[in-house]
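Hello Y.,

Per our agreement to keep a running log of every chain we model this quarter, I'm adding this entry. I've kept the format consistent with earlier entries: sequence first, then predicted structure.
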Amino acid sequence: MGGTFDPIHNGHLVTAEEARVQFGLQQVVFVPSRHPPHKDPDEVSGPEHRYLMTFLATVTNPAFTVSRMEIEREGPSYTIETISRFRREEPEASLYFITGADAILQILRGEWEDSPGLLALCDFIAATRPGFVLDPDDARSRNVTGRRLDNIHFMEIPALAISSTDIRARVRAGRPIKYLVPEPVENYIVKHGLYGALSAADAVVRRGPD
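Predicted structure for the entry above:
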């Protein structure tokens, strides 16, 4: 399961667990990207922060693990390079890439690095948000990769109504994110002042003495 994870939230975790159960996955590997090709690096939190938040969010689930593969690889974090390495390291494994349905449409439109090659490497689990309806015929009409879509599986996840963008905005506005992210992630955001969060010490100073 790749992503920016800025920050990782409960929607990601619910998606991973649902995919694990529905598709009988032995393990879900979270792969935080170092440099998402579609985002300005200056607008993304540091890779180590995002890696550590992902680790804190997943450490209690024995079926979840976090890879530093993209964090330690220089340059843009292209998914095809990551999946190719997993394929080399586990040539007999059945590989599934868990992502959002919107990302699947981008791949079909050829917007990802070597989209045809990527579609040939593994199966895809496309998680859809409530209200996001993907017509299979429409998906086929958008497909410029020349690949068949037999290895793409769709899965609706109500919890995907949660988004990292909204969480960052809530933190900046001083609104609560409890129950949207795991408690250790919430504590990490506050401790390190991510997304404009006030640390506990800063909050005391700003409030002033009683």
